[in-house]
What we know:
- The chain is of the alpha+beta class and 281 residues long.
- The protein has one domain: Clavaminate synthase-like (Double-stranded beta-helix).
- The chain has 7 helices and 19 strands.
- The strands form 5 sheets. The protein has an 8-stranded mixed beta sheet, covered by helices on one side. It has a 4-stranded antiparallel beta sheet with strand order 8-18-10-16.
Amino acid sequence: MYATRALSPSFGAEVLDFNPSALQSKEAIDAIRALWAEHKLLLFRNQDFDEATLVQLSKEFGALEIHVREEYLSREHPEILYVSNIEREGRRIGILADTEVGWHYDQIYLPKPAVGSLLMADILPPEGGNTEFADMCAAFDALPEATRVQLEGCLANQSYEAFNQAYSVPTNTKQKARSPDIQQPLVRTHPVTGKKALYLCPGMTTEIVGWDAGESAEMLAFLFDWTTQPEFVYSHEWQPGDALLWDNACTMHRRDPFDPQHDRLMKRTTILPPEALAVPF
């Protein structure tokens, strides 16, 4: 139903001639869902929809979260999180400003992590601010068999506070209470495709539970390097009107810094899984 263009040899596809109004039909929605499961990352180019349409489009893929960082939400549509370095009325309107943002899975620190995110480019700097994605299924499949066996069944500690200390504004008391450290499977089975993916990230994974501290640190350092090798990574250079939908069960991402003299505003929705598919396994 939709023609596509590959974004990288491993994963990712641009959906050609996409019009959000077409998603009023179940056939079109099912087609996009199938492409999303197949490619893990979908690019929609030359889009010009407003915040109401962004929310409406995102809801076709699941219920939307109201993000814990309430100070950075759209006032008219709180389902939208602003990612920006812009200041208005004496305050920064968005999260993650203009510095580098390290590799991470969205919401790996929550009991029921998001199934995906839709990120829309609103204002872009002339250069910089590229977003990279890592195919964590391909990274797992390429590991030596002995390492795959060693990792399956293990749990790892995930810390949102660690991420904020490294890349963002520290959380307040209320936000910390909503996002305490949590243990998640180190190898996650995708709830739709059944494929296995490494479920860890340098920004938030602090230790492998039950391992000797030195062995845990050594393995995590190896995996962080392994998963970000060029053959597993797609780097997206943003264009005006770009919207990216990524699978949060099997891809992690990061962002390059950009010149703080230039404004950047991205608008993101966070898509929650249905109850039956909510818990990583």
